Amino acid sequence: MYLETERMIVRDFMPEDSSDLHEILGDGETMKDCEPPYSMEKTRKFLREFCIDRQGGVAAVLKESSKVIGYILFASQETGVYEMGWFFNRHYWHKGYAYEACYAVVKHAFSGLCAHKIFAETIDGIKSACLMKKLGMKQEGIQRQQVKDSGGNWADLYFFGILREEWETNEDQQVM
Fold first, then answer.
1. pLDDT tens-digit profile of 127-162?
2. Distance, CA of 125 to CA of 133 (rounded, Å)
3. Nearest CA among 57, 58, 84, 70 for reference residue 20
4. Is 22 in contact with 43 (CB distance < 8 Å)?
5. Which residues contact 19 (CB under 8 A, 6 or more apart)?
6. Closest alpha carbon to 147 in 168, 121, 169
7. pTM for this predicted structure
């Protein structure tokens, strides 16, 4: 995948992205709503086996510096249905980068891949849920105390999704 926005490039991961990816996945604050932070060894294995070999995610890269500041899960679950998720380097939060990169992926899915649906899940009912809503996703349900967070505490799992028809209807309303 290769997508370009005003400030970012969304592309396939490369082996040399391991240090930038580890800044994201190795950070406790970034990973608190998912799992414990990754070691450098676990990051390299995830990069090689999941991101590159299985093409399970793409890199969100700043144009100006070529730095990878985000990991975007984008994986086909069945014909026309894609799962999406993200982690962004916390030093780049609240600057619109996650929305910009994820919007490009959603747009590509519906206009380039003819996706039927994109879905996402989170235990963070605030930050991630807000981005999901901004991308046009609707909350589809909550599974109460379904998973454990990085501290081992039970947490609710929120499900969001957007259908192709909804995207096409609302695309003109999207703010980019």
1. 899 999 999 999 999 999 998 887 888 999 999 999
2. 11
3. 70
4. yes
5. none
6. 121
7. 0.91
